[in-house]
């Protein structure tokens, strides 16, 4: 049977690493522990995790997108309650008859796609035949998420 011996420098190194790891774990919590209350790390934000909590309210942002007729703009207003979209309004600023048509189609169909959904779960690609307006809508939603981040 072979005897296991540990040299003093190796033992000191391992002991130091263990102590450092234990102290680092203690430093992670900045809040005092309260008996019966689970502690959470408060250092993450909605932007860090991608799934956040947003303040209830109504938010408006404008966004641009490219169409064959040039740069188009839409205004998007979203009302949030518990991270869920409860209302959406879109105003188009199309210059050409085609742009006005497609923005109108998008505006007419967007409610059915996003109302009642968690704002983090939506990414619109095509609404009622309008695919380019979706790009502007998605940009506006991202800006609204930043505005509403709690």
Structure notes:
With 150 residues, the protein is of the alpha+beta class. The chain is built from four helices and three strands; from the N terminus they run ααβββαα. It has a three-stranded antiparallel β-sheet with strand order 1-2-3.
Low-confidence stretches: 1-50
Count every beta strand, where a strand is a DSSP E run of 2 or more residues.
3
Structural class: alpha+beta
What is the overall silhouette?
elongated
User: Beta-sheet strand percentage?
Assistant: 15-25%
Cα-to-Cα separation, first versus last residue = 63 Å
Share of helix, binned? 25-40%
Q: Specify the biggest β-sheet.
A: 3 strands, antiparallel
Summarize this, please?
The protein is 39% helix and 21% strand. The chain is α+β, with helices and mostly antiparallel strands.
Features:
single chain; 150 residues; alpha+beta; three-stranded antiparallel beta sheet; elongated
List the helices and strands and how they pair.
Layout: H1 8-27, H2 46-49, E1 57-67, E2 70-81, E3 84-92, H3 97-114, H4 132-148
Antiparallel strand pairs: 1-2, 2-3
């Amino acid at each position: 049977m072979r005897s296991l011996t540990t040299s003093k420098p190796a033992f000191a190194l391992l002991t130091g690493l263990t102590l450092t790891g234990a102290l680092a774990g203690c430093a992670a919590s900045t809040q005092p522990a309260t008996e019966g209350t689970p502690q959470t790390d408060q250092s993450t934000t909605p932007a860090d995790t991608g799934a956040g909590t947003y303040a209830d309210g109504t938010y408006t942002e404008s966004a641009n997108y490219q169409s064959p007729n040039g740069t188009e703009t839409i205004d998007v207003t979203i009302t949030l309650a518990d991270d869920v979209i409860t209302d959406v309004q879109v105003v188009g600023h199309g210059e050409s008859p085609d742009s006005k048509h497609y923005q109108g189609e998008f505006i007419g169909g967007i409610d059915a796609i996003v109302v009642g959904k968690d704002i983090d779960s939506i990414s619109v690609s095509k609404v009622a035949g309008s695919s380019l307006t979706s790009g502007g809508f998605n940009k506006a939603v991202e800006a609204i998420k930043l505005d509403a981040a709690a």
